[in-house]
């Protein structure tokens, strides 16, 4: 199973503080985003485009509604060459750990990763250590509301609203909310490597279903997401994994073939992915992974 969750997972200790900057006089709800459309191509990483506003097929179990009194049409302006939207009007998602707003997917950004990570209460983790499936990247953290305590290579930094924190690849970093309603915008990319918009933002809320073995529900949700977001072959690969684990052999091989046709990397992934052990001896699977 492939997974890529922007800011990683895990926890760390909190040493002595080093304050940076003063609080901005601007209100937190004045923070908005305005981005130009990117012409760069799509990125794919271990499991978790065309523009898609909202995540089709996910219920309120996985996301929170927009701010009261607002709507997508009222808060988002899509014009040739640019889109403008208030950050709080991007739907909130969670996988049961750190909640986030999928900025990159919401705006259809292809050239770089950008996600808003949230801490509702003081002490809530916002940025976790990289997990085993995350690929370290260069990251720029922007505190857009509230206040956060970063731990960077063992050193604590008190980051008020407006603080920028940049980390190079592999830097050990975590952050927790020091005030309620803290939001950290994270922009990430790999030096010398084209960004591949994998669609992890859509997969991550479904990961608990995979972990709990709820494959019927998982397959139904993935089929809906794939129909609405065909630009993400990772979702098709993950569907093949679920089908393999739940005895749907023919469907698993068909969806794996679709994923491989979209990106050759999935052929190599399938060779070593234990999710395909139930169908590994199938002649059609063997033929597919050696082509």
Verbal overview:
There is one protein chain. By secondary structure, the protein is α+β, with helices and mostly antiparallel strands. It has a domain of 171 residues: Jelly Rolls. The chain is 26% helix and 24% strand. The chain is built from nine helices and 15 strands. A five-stranded mixed sheet has the order 1-12-11-14-9, with no helix packed on it. The longest helix is centred in the last third of the chain and has 14 residues. The two termini are 21 Å apart. About 23% of the residues have low confidence.
Strand content: 15-25%
Q: What is the correct CATH architecture of one domain?
A: Sandwich
Which residues form runs of ≥5 with pLDDT under 50? 4-66, 70-74
The Rg value, from CA coordinates, equals 20 Å
User: Count the strands?
Assistant: 15
Secondary-structure element string: EEEHEEEEHEEEEEEEEHHHHHHH
Q: What does the main sheet amount to?
A: 5 strands, mixed
Q: State the CATH superfamily name of one domain.
A: Jelly Rolls
User: What distance separates the N and C termini?
Assistant: 21 Å
Number of contiguous helices: 9
Q: Which structural class fits the helix and strand makeup?
A: alpha+beta
Helix content: 25-40%
In the CATH hierarchy, the third-tier topology of one domain is known as Jelly Rolls
Mean pLDDT: 79
